[in-house]
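User: Second chain of the day. Same drill as before.
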Amino acid sequence: MNSRPFGQARLSRRLFSAMSGAAVGVALLGKERARAEEQVGIVTAVQGVAVAETQPTPRPLSENGSVFLDDLLHTGDASRLGLRLGETTSVRLGARSRLRIDRFLVNAGGELQLGGGQVVLEGPDGGFPSGLTVRSPYALLAVRGTRFFAGGLDDGFSVFVAHGSVAVRAHGPTVVLEPGEGLDIAHVGARHGPVQRWSQAKIDRAMALVN
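Assistant: Same format as last time:
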């Protein structure tokens, strides 16, 4: 009968455990890398400067370039950025805007973080089957509709719905905006202002920030 010294057997077990742990670590790293490199859209238009702030080096964005899950998209002064997420969702960012794509399922919905600036998002007809959430320091938006504006306007943060509906939760009760309605939030931590029908002049002023 073949046998090995006790010390050698114990060393073999430790080596096997270490190799197994390393293999699991590599597998998890591979999954995380695959998740980070999952393409969720493309760039449709760039005016000025736009980058994806990835480590270790920011990636300049250009027309027809790829957009990936977990990308933090950033526009410069007097810049604009157009995106298509999936097949039917279009996004436009204004100057000095920051948008992170935290989670997105093609044509189904997901979660975005608006860190500053302005965004206009137009989704598929009928809305997002899995829901779409937009987080910002000012409010949490649950998007049930297909076209809305959110972002800095008149020294505060504003939300306007063109089509569909958006539920807005700031520092207070949640309100639902219907087409033609908007609201303003004066500063981070403030309650939202009253829901109002926006004038065409205010709508045009907001849309000019992303067009």
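Residues 48 and 128 are 31 Å apart (CA to CA).

User: Great, on to the next one.
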